[in-house]
Each structure stands twice: as C-alpha cells, then as structure tokens.
Write a structure and sequence with these properties.
By secondary structure, the chain is mostly helical. It is built from 17 helices and five strands. Strand 1 and strand 2 form a beta hairpin. The radius of gyration is 25 Å and the shape is globular. 39% of the residues are buried.
Length: 346
C-alpha cells in the first residue's frame, strides 16, 4: 500500500484488486503475512471479493481469536472475507475454524489437493524485499508445508484438539524426511523428533496408522522413531486385545519402520512376555547389519507400468528388478537367493 493514499483511492484499489482472477490468489495470500496492517487488511478484503475458496483457511488464520491475534483491522477484514466466501456469518460457520484448518492440513498431507504438475510455485512473504516472492518446490514439499502451517494454526486455536496435533506431527516429520532423509533423522533432525515425541504416544500412534493408510512408508518410519522415545514408559501389557504401538509397528510396511520399532523395543527392555512378543525375534533376524536388501522381481511387458511398480517397491526398501518376459524374469528370480517377492502381470 502506498503511504498517504486517500481513503477513496484506497477503496478503489481494493475494488480493482477484487476483480483479479484466480491466478493472483497465491501472491495475495502471501501478502496476508505482511507486517503492514493496512496492506494485509486490503489484501484480505480483495481475497473475499475475488471469490476463490482456496483462501479460506489462510484467512481463518488471520480472522481467529488466539493468543497472538492479528491486528483488529486485519482480523475484521479477514472475517468479512470469510463471510463472503462461505455465505455464513463468522460466528455461525458450518464448521468451527479449528476443524476447517485441521481438515485443510490433512487434505494436503494426504495428497488430496490437486496440483497441475510435479512442481509448485510457492508464494511466501519476503520480509527483506517487503513483497510476495515465489520459489519452485516439489509438490510433496509444498503439501507438507501447507499441512504443517494449517495444522499448527489449528493447534494454536485449540491446543487440546487431538486431530490437529496428529496433523502437525505428521507434517513436521514429513518435512524432516524431505530435508534430511529417513536414515539421517537421528543425526540431523533431533529437534523434530523431540517435538514429535513430546506430543505423546497416543498422537504418534494415530499418526502412524494414518501414514500407513496414506501409503507413506518413510513418514511411518520417522513416526516410529519418535514413538520409540514417547512410549518408553508405556507398559507392554494391557487390556485383552490391546497391543503396544511399537509392537504394532513391527508389521508396518517398510523395513525402516520395522527395524526402528524392533530396536526401540529392545532398548526399552520389557521385563517379560507381552502380546505380540513373538514378532520381535523374526523382525530382528531380518535386519542383521550385513543382511542384503531384499529383492523383488517384476515381470511385465508394459515397461511404463513395470517401472511405476518398481518405484513403489523401492519406497518399501526393495531392490526391484523389472523384466519384460517370463524367461528373463525366471532367470532374475533364480540367480540369487534373496528374492522375497515376484510380481507377474498377465
């Protein structure tokens, strides 16, 4: 916003901003984070006028009453924009703001938000340039950034909200995996693991189950690492049918998650037998340090489809070999003794 701009000219500028199309929305959303309250207020009003509902969770962050609220003018403008976008008064939204933010976080975490390509133009407020700036990031990174932001915003509104805490932990650990990889988490992401462990075993168990359902084995492994710290004091014996979450993790997809669970159980040193204890020795036996990575052989005449399946299996820690004929596949499967899986397309 220009200093000294008259109220009439400012109103005209906001009106014209409201006529922009949806392509301008990401940059305007970034401008909501400007420390200039006048600019943030004008941008909030413009977003309400453009009518793109993607702005709703971002506006809710500014509209909500919380420990450190936005300036009153910004908060009021954001509430007015939310009302125009939803057709409901702010005090009578169809869902509470914390629920809207949590659902937005989980939608990004679960890859349910459509992006047109594998990279995303991510707009953020640049405090040095004092304007929105764009950087290109992988789609998976953008998803975890938005999931983390909305999840944390939901927790800020209601620190006791269980789903919001699950969303934050999942997004934080996914970002840590993007930054450092699973194998370097202990060394490079100790702060992220400690923060996740502080959320508690119940939250991490729910996050682990979600990551398994979402098909994210590397995130599952990261969650299990944190769970090993959070569940140290949990008894391994409980009500009938109950299984300790680390024992549950022994059956999680992905070798990294399984070995993290096994090592955590051994480190805790349970005092006696417990439900599922029979799974521990076979799990440990598979992960002797010098044991080679298990192999999988895919036999598929469709190279593209076979390649996609091989990529999926590599995420599950298999050394995947793709062959196009039965003879070649049979030869690959029998030349060594470490083939654990053979997939044949008919």
């Amino acid at each position: 916003s220009k200093p000294g701009l008259s109220a009439e000219n400012r109103a005209l500028m906001v009106k014209n901003m409201g006529r922009l199309d949806a392509k301008a929305v990401p940059a305007l959303i970034a401008a909501l984070d400007s420390p200039d309250a006048t600019l943030a207020e004008d941008v909030a009003s413009a977003l309400g006028n453009i009518g793109d509902r993607r702005a709703i969770p971002f506006l809710l962050i500014k509209a909500a009453d919380k420990k450190e609220p936005a300036p009153p003018a910004v908060r009021n403008a954001a509430r007015g924009a939310v009302e125009r976008l939803t057709g409901s008064s702010y005090g009578a939204l169809p869902k509470p703001p914390v629920q809207i933010l949590t659902e937005a976080a989980l939608a990004f975490h679960r890859r349910q938000v459509h992006f047109p390509g594998e990279t995303v133009a991510l707009w953020e407020w640049d405090p040095k340039a004092k304007e929105p700036a764009v950087r290109i990031v992988p789609k998976s990174e953008a998803e975890s950034i938005f999931a983390r932001r909305f999840g944390q915003a939901a927790v800020d509104l209601d620190p006791s909200d269980f789903k919001a805490k699950v969303a934050v932990v999942s997004a934080e650990l996914e970002q840590a995996v993007h930054r450092s990889g699973v194998d370097a988490l202990r060394e490079k992401e100790a702060k992220a693991l400690d923060s996740a462990a502080a959320a508690g075993a119940d939250v991490l168990t729910a996050a682990m189950r979600d990551s398994i359902a979402d098909g994210k084995p590397e995130v599952t492994a990261a969650i299990v690492l944190a769970l090993g710290d959070a569940a140290k004091e949990m008894s391994f014996v409980g009500p009938p049918g109950w299984v300790h979450p680390l024992v549950e993790a022994l059956a999680a997809p992905g070798r990294r998650a399984q070995i993290a669970a096994a090592r955590s159980i051994v480190a805790i040193q349970p005092k006696g037998p417990f439900p599922g204890s029979s799974r521990l020795v076979p799990a440990m036996a598979r992960f002797v340090d010098n044991q080679p990575q298990p192999r999988a052989v895919i036999i598929d005449g469709n190279l593209n489809r076979g390649g996609q399946l091989a990529a999926l299996l590599k995420e599950l820690d298999y050394d995947a070999d793709t062959e196009t004929t039965g003879d070649e596949g049979f030869r690959a499967a029998t030349e060594t003794g470490d083939v654990e899986l053979i997939l044949i397309s008919f």
